[in-house]
Amino acid sequence: MKTYVRMLPLLLVAVLVGDALRADPATDKALEAMMVKGWPAGKIPASIPEFTGGKIVNSGGDQQTFYIKVRETNAAALAAYVAGLKQAGWVVQGDSRSPTVEKGLVRLDFNWEGQTGLQIAVYQSLEGQWPTAQLPAEIVAPPQARFGGEVSVTTNEEDRSWYFTFKCLGLSEAAARAWLRGLLEQGWAGDENQLTRSFTWKGRKMSATLEIYETTSDSSSFTYNFGVED
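^ that's the sequence the OP posted. Answer follows.
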């Protein structure tokens, strides 16, 4: 799963270190003015329901990464919220205290700050494109695939090998395995879990493997490895 590392907006940092900064009433008022209270409707995807199990004290970020600070909440409120998301078709992973919830291009992370403070991190990926120009014709994607995030090919010049993982939105495990079975009729060998193939690219003899990396109820991820044969 994609890792996201971003700087917290200044207004959220103020919340995190607010107690340390508060030296007098004037500082209190300044910090209070920086806070964006209430559910940030219109700033995050409408598919994310409002969290009503606590007090929204602050929020901020951009289209790709947005943070919501909740206070006066508890584990039961989070559990109820996540249960509602799951019922609405979101995929829930991780432990119950700090789960990760994902649907399409949107992912939510929940992290506790003390006993009654919760941070909700909203991550939005851009839909990716298949890197046709970087790949041999034999390295293909499922028909009409929509890609969750950038499809980035890693090259190892020393080993003369290439590697990448890609996520297909809306492709179930059954559909993923059906696609692999279909490739058996197009020159690939193996089974619905892992395929292999040899071919020539740019005058060099190549070998490749394709396998299912991860599946959820509404997406499937695959890994390609290919390189020059010795």
